[in-house]
Design brief:
This protein is an alpha/beta fold. It has two domains: 158 residues, HAD superfamily/HAD-like (Rossmann fold, 3-Layer(aba) Sandwich), CATH 3.40.50; 65 residues. Helices cover 44% and strands 10% of the residues. It is built from ten helices and six strands; from the N terminus they run αβαααααβαβαβαβαβ. The protein has a six-stranded parallel beta sheet with strand order 3-2-1-4-5-6, with helices on both faces. α2 runs antiparallel to α5, α4 runs antiparallel to α5 and α5 runs parallel beside α7. The protein is elongated.
């Protein structure tokens, strides 16, 4: 673990546990389940977009998938072309790829127990994800047993890295940022929590490296989401 992160975590959270948080809000892909291959997914949709529309690769290749679909849709309209068919086809392709990957993916071993522990401790659970709901339910069919508020891509007014994605979840839970904790494997999860002035936990082993997560300065940094169980129900130890 990054030495500066460890020092910061020991100072910030020596031995009080996590029981004072009322709501635990999780990212999904890479946090509660193994990472889907987003790089391969993006490449397929990017190649489709360029072939289908003729937009320059350099104009969209550094954007996230949903964002470059939206950008290309606007570009088609602005250049006098019909963009509706492309928009629908691109989103259908994203969903198709995502669902295909989801059929072979499930919660990390032990993560269902973590979520059950949170519920037993009378905690609210929210999920803020760029995944579609159908894929999420394939990966975790009993998600309703745990989740009090699910803000998937299908129902989000805004998507991460926009912090309003997180705000939508907080509103659905009817809880405040001061009583909530954001947990995710991505820098964007840390950034949206910081934008909302929320405490956050960076989880290693996902889409971003330890160095990238440490540089984003999460409140705490842990190796695996299941490590949270140590700090619930009065079982906290000093530091992560």
């Amino acid at each position: 673990m990054h030495a500066n992160s460890r020092k910061m975590m020991q100072m910030k959270y020596p031995d009080n546990g996590l029981d004072h948080y009322h709501a635990f809000i999780f990212d999904f892909d890479g946090t509660l389940v193994p990472c889907l291959d987003l790089r391969a997914m993006k490449q397929r949709v990017l190649d489709f977009t360029i072939e289908r529309t003729g937009i320059a690769r350099h104009e969209i290749q550094n954007m996230m998938m949903v964002e470059f679909i939206d950008h290309t849709h606007r570009w088609l309209i602005e250049t006098g072309q019909q963009g509706t068919d492309y928009f629908e086809q691109a989103h259908n392709l994203v969903r198709e790829i995502e669902i295909e990957a989801a059929t072979a993916t499930s919660l990390f071993p032990g993560t269902a127990e973590l979520l059950s522990t949170l519920k037993a401790c009378d905690k609210q659970i929210g999920i803020v994800t760029r995944n579609c709901e159908q894929a999420l339910r394939l990966m975790c069919p009993n998600i309703d047993d745990f989740c009090d508020a699910l803000v998937a891509r299908d129902h989000a007014q805004y998507l991460k890295p926009d912090p309003r994605h997180l705000q939508q979840c907080l509103s659905a839970l009817d809880t405040s940022f001061t009583d909530s904790l954001m947990i995710g494997d991505g820098v964007v999860d840390i950034q949206i929590a910081q934008a909302m002035k929320m405490d956050c936990v960076g989880v290693l082993g996902g889409h971003n490296s330890e160095a990238e997560l440490a540089a984003a300065s999460p409140t705490w940094l842990i190796k695996h989401v299941n490590d949270l169980k140590i700090y619930l129900g009065g079982h906290a130890t000093a530091g992560f």
